[in-house]
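Reopening closed ticket. The problem is back. First fold of the pair:
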Amino acid sequence: MFAPRMKNIKMSGIRKMFDLARGDAIHLGLGEPDFQPPENAKNALKKAVDDGYNKYGATPGMHELRDAIVEKEKRYRKDLTRDNVVVTAGGTEALMASIFTFIGEGDEVLIPDPGFVIYEPQVRLAGGKPVRYPLFEENDFVPKIDDLKITKKTKAIIVNSPSNPTGGVMGEEDIKAFVDIAEDNNLLIFSDEVYDEIVYEGKHHSFMGKYDNLIYVNSFSKIYAMTGWRIGYVMAKEEYLKEISKMHYYTMACPPTPIQYAALEAIKGEQDYVKKNLEEYRKRRDITVDGINKIEGFRCRKPKGAFYAFPSFTFNISSEALAMKIAKAKVIVTPGTAFGPNGEKHLRLSYANSIENIKKGVEIIGKVVRDIK
C-alpha cells in the first residue's frame, strides 16, 4: 500500500511529546514563541485580506518582499538581487525543495547529531543517505571538521547555527573551517539560519557571502512569532534557484499571498519587537539554566543562541523514559534522542514560555528526578 520511501520515516519525537500534552500541562517541549506576531504585521495581514489580495501570486514570491529580504541579507553579501530569493512555506519547505533539487539516490549528506528533526527524513525521502556528525557538550555543541566523515559519495553538508536543539553558535573561524573543507571536496552547504536574530553574546556569523555553493534557508517563524503563518525563504545563486523554483512550484505553486504582505511589513517595520523579545529570551534562558543546574544529576551549559537549553543528566534512565516520567507530572520536554543518537542522556527544554511556567516546570522536573538513581 505505502511507497518504499516511507519505510524508515518515523513521526517526529517533538510531535510525539506534543501529542501527550494535556490542557493543564506546562509545555517546554515545542520550539514556538509564546509571543504574538508584531502588531504592524497582523494589521498588514488583515488589510491584505480586506483589500482582496487573496489570489495566486508569483511562484518565487512577490517582488516587494523579495527585495526587502535582499536588503536585509545584504549585510552579508552586497551583490544580492531578488533573483537570489524564493519565498517558501517556512524554512521546512525551503529546505525540502532544496534537498529534493540537489540530492538523489545514494548521495551522502552530512547532518548534525543532535540536529533538527527534519534533516534526516528529508534526505532519506530524496533518496539520499544521511551521515551524522556529532556535536559535543564539551565543545559547546559547535561542530568540528575533524568529525566529518567525507567520502566520494558525499555531496552536501547541512549546518544549523544557532542550533536547534542545542543553542550552539558557530563562530567566524568555525564557518571558515567548514567553507574550506567544502571547497576542497566540492560540496554543497545547506545552511539553516532561522534563529539568526536570537544570539545572546556577540553577533550572528552567517555562511552567506562566505561560499558560492551555498543554499541559505531562513524564516519569519521564530523571529517574528509567525510559526502558524508558514512563511520563509531560500537564497542561492540564480542558476541554483531556477531549479529549486521548479520543485517549489510542484510543492505549493506559490507562497500564500496575504501572508507575504504581513511578512513584508514585519521585515520593513521597526525592529524594536525583535530586540525586546531577545532580551526576554535572555532572562528566560538564565532562569532555565540556573534552575536546571541546581538539580542534582543535571548539567546545563548556557546556550549562546536560539531558545533551547540542552542539559545532560547522569540518571540511570534513557532520555525518552525520563521525558515520559516528566510528562506524567504534566511538564512536557523533548528527549534528546528525538534529535539523533548523540542526544541520549540529554533533554531539550524550550524556554519560549513565560518565566512563571519555566520556574514551575523546572521545579516539577526536580521533584520527578529526586528519587531516580
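Second fold of the pair, where the issue appears:
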Amino acid sequence: MLPFKLVYSDDYYLPIGAHVFPAEKYRHIHDRLLQTRTAETSDFLTPEGASDEDILLVHTSDYVRKLKTGTLSAQEEMQMEIPYSPELVRAFWLAAGGSILAADNALKDRIAFNIGGGFHHAFPDHGEGFCMIHDVAVAIRGMQRDHKITRAMTVDCDVHHGNGTAAIFAGTRVPSDPLPSSSPTTLAPLRPAKSRRSHAGDVFTISLHQENNYPAWKPPSSIDVDLPDGIGDDDYLAWLDNALSSGLRQFDPELICYIAGADPYREDQLGGLALTTEGLKRRDELVFRVAQARNLPVMVTLAGGYARRVEDTVTIHCNTVIAAAETFRKQS
C-alpha cells in the first residue's frame, strides 16, 4: 500500500480521436502501477466531476456557458487544438474534480496524485494547447474558498511554459535574486516578473520550460526559467533546484501543486530538451525532497507527454509515483 492516494477514473480518457495527445495514457498508467505492484486497488480514489460553481472560481461565465451549450466559435475550438464534444466537457470537469480531490488528500497525507489533470494552458475565457479547463487553478481556488489554505505554489516542469497558470495567478512577483555560486553555466536565466496587475498575490508560480517552444506568448510567472534547446539532466536539475530555492526564500506556501510533465524527455515529439528517463525521476525526487524537508503538502498532476513510444511516457509518469513512494516512505 502506498503512503498516499492516487485519484483516477477510466473516464479520464479524452475522446479526441487520432491525436498527438495520447488519451489512452491514463488507463495505461493505472494498469502499469497495478501490474508492477507499485500500487494496490485500495490506493486509488475515484473522483466526481467538479461542479459548475467550482469551475467558475477560475473561468468566466461566458466561457463556461459556451462549453456547456456547445457554442464555441470555430476559432475558439481551433485554438484549443482538440475537437469539441459534450463528452470532452465531462472529461475535463472530471479532471478538475480529480485535482480537487487530490489537493484535499495532499493536505491529509502530505502528498496525493491526480493521474490526470495538469491542463496548464487553459485561460479564464478560453482554452489552448489541448487544455479546456485549468484543473490545478480550480483546485487551488477551491481549497482557498473552503478555507483549507490561503497560499499555494505551482511548480510547473512541463516542457511548455504554463501560460494559463501565469495569467490566472498574475500578482505574485519575485525581486531580482542573485544566483548562487553553484548555478549551472548553461545560459537559462531566472526571469522574474517585470510587471503585474493588482492581485492578492496568494499563488506563486514557477515555470521551468524550453524557451523556444509553445506558446509563443509567455506571460510572466513569478519565476520563469527559460531553458535553451537540448539541455540535459544535470543542468536541468541545477536550474530546478535554484528556482525552488529562490521561490521558497520569498514565499511561504501551504500547498505545492507540482505539474509533472513527461515531455522534457529527449524523445518527446513536442519537446526539444534532452532529459533521460532517469533524469526525470531525479527531477521528481528533488521536488519531493524539498517539499518533505519543509513539511509542505504536494498535489501532483501528470501533465504533458508525447513520446514516440507511449510506453516511455507511461514509464516516466509511473516513475513519478515511484519517486514519491520512495521519498515519503522514508519520511514515515
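Update: turned out to be a display glitch only; the data is intact. Residues 175-187, 193-200 have pLDDT under 50 and may be disordered. The two ends are 13 Å apart (CA to CA). Please close again.
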